[in-house]
Design goal:
By secondary structure, the protein is α+β, with helices and mostly antiparallel strands. The protein is built from nine helices and nine strands. It has two domains: about 60 residues, Orthogonal Bundle (Arc Repressor Mutant, subunit A), CATH 1.10.10; about 170 residues, Beta-Lactamase, CATH 3.30.450.40. The strands form two sheets. A six-stranded antiparallel β-sheet has the order 6-5-4-9-8-7, with helices on both faces. The protein has a three-stranded antiparallel β-sheet with strand order 1-3-2. May be an activator protein for the gylABX operon.
Length: about 250
């Protein structure tokens, strides 16, 4: 473990780094550590480590043994690990269904997972058409206010949440987003025209978990004229894929 450099009255960012270093100090060989051990490992004073550790305890990220007063990792980390594992499971379970969607439509297929006010591209399968959409590489995070997947996700949220998502936008852009969301709710699927890449159209459906909470969206993207001409068929194909992925995950779509 590297010692933490810098003064103990550092910035908020330094505090976050130090809190992370406290968590990373634990491993399989040392699942519990006392205050002095942590201070030695991190190169910080006991007082500084105590403040960090107690804050992490209050968040459930650390626990303190009431008898020995040593620290161990908290169960809240298991919840976070479950979120990560769930995302990995979705990608694994969805892959074959996304490939089938690409094969049946010829368009590029995306699996987008919600991350707060954005959606991250968890998987992309390139279309087979000569003119195909490659606008969002895997790992890219896109605001929910941009793209068909974001619109599909927003369409499942209540109006207060949608208003919160557009609050930082100028009035015209915010109005455009809300109009797209309203259209998606009325139409039953989200459709966007050139808002990520000029000349590209996309259609998306939200993916809901077993509690009815939105976890992401599946979309197809391609040449705008082609997508517009086949929007009903594409929407039906994306809907089937969403249902298949939900069933593979053991979720019932609400």
């Amino acid at each position: 473990m590297e010692r933490i450099e810098g003064s103990e009255s550092g910035s908020d960012l330094q505090t976050v780094v130090r809190a992370g270093a406290v968590l990373f100090a634990f491993d399989q060989n040392t699942p519990e550590l006392g205050l002095s051990q942590l201070a030695t490992k991190l190169g910080l004073s006991k007082a500084a480590v105590h403040r960090l550790a107690q804050t992490l305890v209050s968040l459930g990220l650390l626990e303190q043994n009431p008898t020995t007063r040593t620290y161990r990792l908290g169960v809240r980390l298991l919840q976070l690990a479950h979120v990560v594992q769930s995302s990995l499971d979705i990608r694994h379970e969805a892959r074959s269904h996304l490939r089938d969607l690409r094969d049946s439509t010829g368009e590029t297929v995306y699996l987008m997972l919600r991350r707060g006010d954005g959606a991250i591209c968890a998987d992309r399968i390139e279309g087979s058409h000569p003119m195909r959409d490659l606008s969002t590489p895997p790992g890219t995070t896109v605001p929910l206010t941009i793209g068909a997947s974001g619109t599909a996700i927003l369409s499942t949220l209540d109006d207060t949440e949608v208003e919160g998502a557009v609050r930082s936008l100028d009035s015209k852009t915010a109005a455009d987003v809300i109009e797209r969301v309203d259209a998606a709710r009325a139409r039953g699927f989200a459709m966007t025209r050139g808002d990520i890449s000029e000349g590209v159209g996309a259609i998306a459906m939200p993916l809901l978990d077993d509690r009815g909470a939105v976890v992401g969206a599946v979309s197809v993207g391609g040449l705008l004229s082609r997508v517009e001409a086949s929007q009903v068929e594409l929407a039906a194909a994306v809907t089937r894929t969403v249902v298949e992925i939900a069933e593979a995950m053991g979720w019932k779509q609400v």
